[in-house]
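Holo prediction. Input below; ligand is S-adenosyl-L-homocysteine.
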Amino acid sequence: MTSVAQDVWIDQKARSAGYASGEAFARELGLKPYRLAQLYRAATRELAETVDTVSVLPLDLRATLASRGFAFESVEPVIVQRSNDEQTSKGLFRLHDGNEVEAVLMEHWGDRTTVCISSQAGCAYACAFCSTGQAGYTRNLSAVEIFDQARFFARELATREKKITNIVFMGQGEPFANYDAVMDAVRLLNDPSGFGLGQRHITISTVGLVPQIAAFAGEGIQVNLAISLHAPTDAQRSAIMPVNRRYPVADLMGACAAYVDKTRRKVFFEYVILEGVNDDDASAAALAKLMRGHLYHVNLIPYNATPDAPLRGTGDTRVRAFAKILDDSGVPTTVRTPMGRDIAAACGQLRAETQPKVRAAAAAAVAVAR
Ligand code: SAH
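Structure of the complex:
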């Protein structure tokens, strides 16, 4: 039995190599099902670097695959930077058409590691505080382009005998605006015969697309849902998130309540805390009111300043006071620890900084990461 994930992987890799489909690829090269399974397993489970290194495949097949451009990688690292404390590594990846996306690896205490991946090149939602949002939308990524960002960091971690333990869709783009490819990428990440990351270790973060939240509730999967709420009232939220005019707070909260009813799974709410915008006592009280009595968790996110937005993060003392109001109302709240600030690891920041002089140093940085 082959998995749906394997079919998606073979099909997309075959198409990138110029075949009409995965079936056409198998037919033209006379590949039996077990050969397809070996290829898929080598790339997604054994994390082989290239087709040439897969010793279970006959040499002539490896040569044919290489000459036809069948490749394990669909994302090419152009810059890999590591923060001074070595806990955060950020990769800028070039896609076949020259577009670039970012992914970030965070290594926490113990053996916990989180990789943050992108689902689109750019983003159409134009949130005021987000560097990617300010740059606009380019295109959707394919499932394999999403998956290969994780594969890159899994290979890098393997050189240090470590593994990816968590994946978050919190890089560039709006995952629910590229719903089908994101669900296929989840299947690729989760497939026990391939990459094998547990569903509970995957989190999808959305700007709040109500119809897709409803669809996601019906998937019957254990993947976590995070909502970028960032403000408790329509006036405040519309001012920083244009999507709120389409899906206002009441509709969004209704979709979240329906999701919890259906799945019995907790929803995580992200709240980037911004000075003078959403950090006053009244906002905390309004947020507590939205959260109270539900299976919800608030994650307060210190703002990573971006050069293009005239916004400032709230100071630590005020963040603590804000968190206390939520705590006192019985709302489970955590404050996210910022990581990788010295390498501009917030959404869209590295791409925004890409300059010829940075590119010149890329080859060396990539060599270090490999
Ligand atoms: N489009 C999705 C996922 C990508 S953004 C979403 O909106 O959820 C991932 C998270 O990073 C979101 O909560 C987003 O609001 C937040 N974010 C974006 N720019 C940020 C910044 N400069 N500082 C802190 N968090 C930021």
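Residues 127, 129-130, 170, 174, 205-207, 228, 270, 272, 301, 303-304, 306, 346-347 surround S-adenosyl-L-homocysteine (CB under 6 Å). That is the main takeaway for now.
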